[in-house]
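Priority: medium. Attachment 1 of 2:
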């Protein structure tokens, strides 16, 4: 188990001990994304919170201020404070991603990966998740990303099985069929 997964599991279990619902834990994931966005947009924040020149006390004060401004629940403020004390704030993004996976797995679901050539709307993602949830008999949620090199379409991976509906894949199949059909030419 990775360090990120260990922290994510600890946060999930602490949230469940406080009787937080799955939706509340999902909200914490979004709040962690908001904090990560602050890190990504502000070099000064990165230096202050991730660098060695700022004391732990100062880091905790900064994080508490961000937490109040972003309306974090007390558990999440305590958690990011713990990360600061342990020198693990640089793992926030990985911990957040692991939290989604841990939450879904412990609630009986499975995490899939959806890669599309163009951004996909939430409604379309929800329709796909619902269809695959029915197919697998358990909740399916997606980690979504885009990759323009796919040209068009999407590639979905769930439970280690990849469903490739990309234009790039279809062109490759056509190429292989064409080459295989030429006499004396081997692919």
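Attachment 2 of 2:
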């Amino acid at each position: 188990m990775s360090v990120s997964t260990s922290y994510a599991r600890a946060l999930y279990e602490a949230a469940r001990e406080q009787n937080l619902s799955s939706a509340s834990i999902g909200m914490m994931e979004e709040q962690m994304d908001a904090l990560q966005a602050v890190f990504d947009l502000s070099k000064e924040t990165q230096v202050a919170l991730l660098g060695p020149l700022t004391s732990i006390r100062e880091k905790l004060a900064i994080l508490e201020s961000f937490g109040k401004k972003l309306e974090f629940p007390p558990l999440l403020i305590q958690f990011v404070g713990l990360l600061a004390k342990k020198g693990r704030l640089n793992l926030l993004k990985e911990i957040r991603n692991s939290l989604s996976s841990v939450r879904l797995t412990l609630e009986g679901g499975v995490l899939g990966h959806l890669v599309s050539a163009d951004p996909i709307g939430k409604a379309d993602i929800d329709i796909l998740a619902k269809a695959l949830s029915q197919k697998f008999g358990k909740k399916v949620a997606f980690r979504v990303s885009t990759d323009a090199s796919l040209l068009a379409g999407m590639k979905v991976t769930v439970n280690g099985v990849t469903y490739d509906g990309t234009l790039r894949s279809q062109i490759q199949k056509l190429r292989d069929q064409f080459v295989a059909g030429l006499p004396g030419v081997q692919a």
